[in-house]
Amino acid sequence: MKVAQIWRYPVKSMAGEQMNHARIGPLGIEGDRVVHVEDEDGRVITARTHHRLLGHHATLNESGEPVVEGLLWSDSKVRKDVVDIVGPGARLVRDDSSDRFDVLPLLVATDGAIAAFGHDGRRLRPNLVIGGVEVWPSVRGPGNVCVSERSGSESRTFAGAAS
Amino acid sequence: MTTFDPDTLKLDRQVLTGIVQKFGGTLALNCYVIRGGEIRVGDPVELARHSECETSRA
Fold first, then answer.
1. Chain B partners of A56 at a C-beta cutoff of 8 Å?
2. Which of A103, A120, A148 to mutate to test the interface with B (most CBs of B within 10 A)?
3. Smaller CB count within 10 Å for chain B: N or C?
4. Which residues contact A33 (CB under 8 A, 6 or more apart)?
5. Complex ipTM tops 0.95
6. Where are the domains of chain A?
């Protein structure tokens, strides 16, 4: 098995970016979901209720700040786009705490599971896709991921069910 | 957001229904990070038990 895909979603519920390499910290891939959208009452807004957020593409710049369609997340044009989707008073908020994840920091899928799924794997919004998994093991979460120290050019990632 | 096509944003509720019916609602694994580090596409991955995960070294 190998690391087949790495994904990061710097703005929660927006489209993210595929990466060749990444640093994983205690809260998952660095820069993942560090900005989210809130409505005028301060409630976190996601694509579950406002799916048009998925049509915006976010990446992380060299300073660790999300960029939406080429504009810094704090740019007034980005806020205008969010207001158009969510309504007056909506805004983007930076949050680096562990509260920013719906469940846990890292969603891991396999190529075997995506093949059995039969749809575009991006629908799952995975952080890691493990390749070379022919049969989806019937494991239930939560799982654990640990990355070994790099030896030479490779690290070794271990994944498994927590229980 | 499994029910929306990531490119066209077209809604297809059957996708979520399928995940529930075919996979019992679990198609991917929500994970804690026991130990972080640098990863790269192509790096080897192994399945490990919890104790192995905590003690493993390259």
1. none
2. A148
3. C
4. A9, A10, A11, A12, A100, A101
5. no
6. 2-100
